[in-house]
Amino acid sequence: MSRGYHLYLAALPEVCAADPGRMVFTADAGGRCEVFTWDAVTGAARQVTDRPRGTLHGAIDRDAHIWWFDEDEHGRGRWMFQPFQGGADRPGLTGVGPGEPRGLAVADRAVVAVGIGDARTTAVHLGPRGGEAREVARVDGHAALSGITPDGRYLALTGAAGSARAVTVLADDGTVRAVLPGDGGHGRLWCLGFAPVADRAELLLVRESGDRYLLASWRPGSGITPHSWQPFDTEITARWYPDGRSVLVRQDRHGRSALRRVHLVRRTTQTVPAPRGTLLDAAPRAADDVHYLWTDTATPPRIASTKGTPLPPPHDPASQVPGEHRDLWTPGPDGPVHTLLSLPEGRRGPVPAVFLVHGGPADHDRDAYDGVVHSLVVSGFAAVRVNYRGSTGYGPRWRRAFGEGVGLTQVADLVAVRADLTARGLVRADAVGLWGFSWGGYLTLLAAGVHPKLWRAGVAVKPVADYPAAYRTTTPALRALDERLFGGTPDEVPERYERSSPLHYAAAVRAPLLVAAATRDAKCPPGQVRGYLAALRRAGVRHEAMWLDTGHNGYAADTHVAVLRRAMVFLDRELRGATPQTPRPHRSGDPGRARATTTPAGAGTTRHTERRTGHAEGHHPERPARG
Question: First vs last Cα of the chain: how many Å apart?
Answer without folding.
Answer: 18
